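re: ur question from the group chat, yeah i did fold both. here u go
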Amino acid sequence: MGVASHSYHWMKTGFRPAKSRISRWRVEANRIIKRCESLKKMTDDRLERYSLELRWRAKSGEPLKKILPEAYALARESAWRTLKMEHFPVQLMGGMALFEGGIAEMQTGEGKTLTAVLPAYLRALMGKGCHVITVNDYLAQRDAEIMSPVFNKLGLSVGTITSDLEDEDRRTAYACDITYGTANEMGFDFLRDRIRIGASAPGQLEQAISNHKTSGKEPLVQRGNYFALIDEADSVLIDEARTPLIIGLIQPNDAASVNLFRWSNRATHRLESEEDFVYEPKKRSAYLTDQGCRKVLLMPKPSLLDSIDTERIYKQVEQSLVARFGFLKDRDYVVVDEEVVIVDESTGRMMDGRKWQDGLHQSIEAQEHVPVTASTGQAARITVQSFFQNYSHLAGMTGTAALAEKEIRKTYKVSVTSVPTHRPCLRIGDPPRLFKTVQAKRMAVVEEIERIRLKRCPVLVGTPSVEASETLGDLLAMKAIPHQILNAKYHEQEAAIVKKAGEPSRVTIATNMAGRGTDILLTDEVRENGGLHVIATEMHTSARIDRQLIGRSARQGDPGQYQFFLSLEDELLRCLETHQLERIIESAKADENGELAPSWISFFNNTQSFLEKLHRKQRRDMLKQEKHRIEMFHKMGLDPYLEWTE
């Protein structure tokens, strides 16, 4: 689906499911709202006792499906008493879709955080724990803080898992009825518990856990995997699925290894592309030619490298080439306090504690002239797909699931259901504008920002990287245009920046940090002037990421507009061969402002589609490998998530 057809495709078709299912949920939602009337007269103490009664019934074996109307009515009334927020009928319908299993597609701004309270409360009545999973620590803490009063009034406890917690605090958080956290943190806790349990065949896992509890050893952190409710489900289940969760074994670098990383980085600058090596941008891989191998072999080397075999030297030079040509500072990573920190493409956030494998991270450290950290082996690993298959019940919600419906259904064996919006969507999409050079594009973006500010409307400018956000910020500063930048470097100011982003004439430049889970509240003046304007300065590798950014405007019936500004020097096109892209740019005919004909949009759409297919294939291949690996470990009677050696 291309940029040019976004507005029509989303607003007209809506990816409607079977009418019968929606009709059934709508009728039940109206019944729940009527049931809420009888709860208005209850005191807070009586409301909590009623909740305890429901918990007793659930634990006594009464089907949760039968308890659902009462539970949802209770949760709705509690939300009103604590937050002055009542679930709309479509939110109750979304809650039913989530309880019945699968992914609920709810458009951006439809109140997914409040909707999540419904199935989370109902499943938590079983006393087995409910995990509400978000895409980052910020959203986990924010959602838990906002929604805790709703659960507390009904007698349930709430915990939050963040990256800075110690094990004892994690146990306390998991012991709560509802626990908020990220897939990464919960997945790593799952792996660490498997390491604590030790070797066990899959069929003997329950016995191994029981033996561990009575052994006097360090207790497990998690108490089980009963129910997972995933916010921004497509980001977690699809975008993060190409990166397995790996717990590393620290392998301290000796002096020879550090020398190898640094020497290999220098060696890449003495090699000629195509003659000595071939870099494949689509695969982000590099290999030395025969001539390149000979050149590397004959290069002067420190004496410390005499102890390292030639094959390892070749492989490390190839990794250094990948680091040099495939990974860009302030796009793929940032350097903070002399440390290389990975930046997640789909969320724009720093991934503290994560490292690239097989010497790639150390290659980038050598390239950036910062201390080279210890290499890591593997103690345990799990893919996102395998992790969520350990839950007895799985549900998720997002505004962009339908674009990945086929893959979600095939991989996770769950359906995708589209929930109607509470109010009609008023989002207006302007035709994309295309330019030959990135500089021409940026100047046009600055002019557009100036035009929108004169209308007293706020502008949210989406950029693909930290570098791009700061470059555009410099251009605005030259024009004396006030603005705020939200990227991985300024994550601590996120809440304050977002809070003001909906004010008249406010300009916010953001990476994908402002794409998911961000509510930009508008003033009455802004609504009257046309709402929030979103300018997308590039297309991402997935149309779903683009759609998340666009979805910041025109939320909950508010007006809003969006427009794409693209150039032939955009990062999206770096997947193409250099010589191929250079020929395309050279042949492009632009006007005096560097602007191209509208027909060029098909080139961008086709490139994005190519990358989406490539990434789908990579996820599919990884899933096949994982299945084979698990089957092999099962046959040997070993835990498939632990790394085994002879």
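okk and heres the other one u asked abt
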Amino acid sequence: MRQISERDWVALRSTLQALVDRDTELMSIGVRSEFGTLRLDTGHHEKMWNPTTGATNAADKAKIPITLNHRTWGHMEFCFRQSGSNSFDRLLSNPTVQFVGFYILAGMFAYTVFVIRMMGVFSNTQVVPDRVRQALDTLAEGLLVLDGSGRIVLANQAFADLVGVEADLLTHKRASELEWVADDVAESGYPWMHAIEKSELQSEQMLRITLDDGSQRIFSVNAAPLGKDRTQRGALATFRDVTHVEEHRAELERMLSLLRSSRDEIERKNRALEILATQDSLTGCLNRRAFFEKFDSIWMQAKANDSALACIMVDVDHFKSVNDTYGHHTGDEVLRAVAQVIRAQNESDGVVCRYGGEEFCVLLPDMDIETALIRAEKIREAIAAIRLDDPEELRLTASLGVSELRFRSHNPQELVNQADACLYVAKREGRNRSIVYNASYSIIQDTEKILEEDKHDRVDIPFQAVIALVSALSYRDTDTAEHSRRVADLCARAGEGIFDPAERYILEIAGLLHDIGKIGIPDCILLKPGKLTPEEWEVMGRHDRIGVEIVSGSFECLKLTEIMANHHAFYGGHARDPELPIGEAIPLAARLLSIADSYDAMVSDRVYRPGRSHEEAVEELRRCAGTQFDPKLVEHFIEKISSTRAIFATGAIALRKQNALAIGSHVQALVGAVSNQDITELQTQAIRVASLANDFQLTDIANVAVSIEQLAKTEDATWVALLRQSYDLVDLCRSTQSDFLKRSLERDAEQVNSQAK
């Protein structure tokens, strides 16, 4: 049996031949497989075992079954010499008997085959030669040969190794009874059953199987049908282990999913960064960098196509006052509302940028200057129509400048500068208007800086209105008006070295008007010759609030209003006015006005007491330093009033009104010459101003005018520098007007007193 199992046919033939040679009765030996194939024999075994028709049967036969691995493999056939003849043998040797026996055996064989086929026992797939089995075992892929019901006829060694079950134990077991994952089967069924039932090839179906150790393997299954008729149907199924491939694929899918998530997150962050990098976070408009990036391409396209390109600059009027009065939160709401109306009108056909602070720039491709001016007016009207829920009373206006390529700007920045120059002119002409560019505006080389200085440093307080208010106060109470004049003079003198001319001018006006609220106090209290009762002092205390309301309603100057509202605040705080600021939070000018007001009140005579001396007043100021007054400002005030004369233009006391008007007209002409860049006219007007100032003994004005005339002659003179000096000259003239105002008030007071008498 070992030689058969090992297929050692040569050794087996030698062994069988030796047996035949030793035994004289043994004629031949044959080894026949279960399928009837004579695999090995000695001599003429086939003729002896199956003699031809008519031949004499001269041999006794014997057959021994051969079993390998608990399965019938075949049998061994032995032919022996006959020991003698009998009647039965002679009968069997009769040809007629043999013929009848042949037909009987053939009929039984045919019937047996028919029954087996009818019972479905026989299947072509069960007939697997050994050499086929050996070939299938050499395959690396798992393989199953299945009958029509899905039972395993043959499992190769590779499949047995994959599922961890011996091949013999798999035979006759349904393939579907293995531990397949139910979800895979429920989705598409078993591929081998589809192949059997539909006689169609099934390809690359993924099935998972659970092994005894709990792990899972993943197979790519292909199934092909076997047999053509219903009774011989079966299937051949191959199983390719793709566990590592699928795990790798699943890992790749997870990685790809993570990458996609990361990519999406990066894209979201990039979009957010792009918005942060290109848009103003408060208003949603483009910032300046992104604006000029777009501007460059639009500029190039307009130049290449010789098409129109308009630019509008928008500035919210008095925006600093909005922030100071209502707070920066309201200021932000204003900017958002202004940006919303500008974007609503221009984003469809233009580019909107928050240029800086409360300034916006609008770029309008293919739009001429006439259409751009109409658009600017619509923007201005839309801003004026803005209403906030809080504060409801707030009203907004805007100044706009409009320019276009026809004015021959050489680059994008120059076009913006032209529109900004128009914006500056709109501010100077009273705000809340749209101005179209004119060549005379080209002086503005550094528009943004100058405009910023103009908004914060220049003040527009109508002098005639100040005169009218103080004259009205003088009519009600001459002593109070005179006190106000002296306080204004003290503020002007003490403000030297701390404030610039424009700020000194505001402080001086605050000194003149700090008691203007007394206009609203009844005469019985205001003009009472003796001391006031506590109730009367309470009424008198209201004049501060009245004065603030008069000043804020008469002048659009927040600094002046702040000084008026806070000059009674105590440096160290006071329980009577807990809402007022303390310490450094009090505006510097208000602190100085408080000192000047108290000093003059102490040194002035009253009907109920004489005035103190300068030394006594100084001692009192120092005693109250740190509680009521700023200690540093007290020392500065004492130093200035003790050693300094009036700081205004020399000779202002003798200045008559017509002389002031004459100098003012030439100063105005000088500023106009700077704006028009007319160097000849500038020099002419500077010489005239200097000459008139010298005639009227106004040395300071004359010196500034001469400085402008000399600067205009130098080669390195810039229009910006000339414009700055022109502003200094205007501020100096304002100071002179202030001095003239004081003298006018004295005359008015004298006239009122004389009329009263």
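fwiw on the second one: Residues 119-126, 443-458, 644-658 have pLDDT under 50 and may be disordered. The first strand starts at residue 26 and ends at 33. idk if thats what u expected
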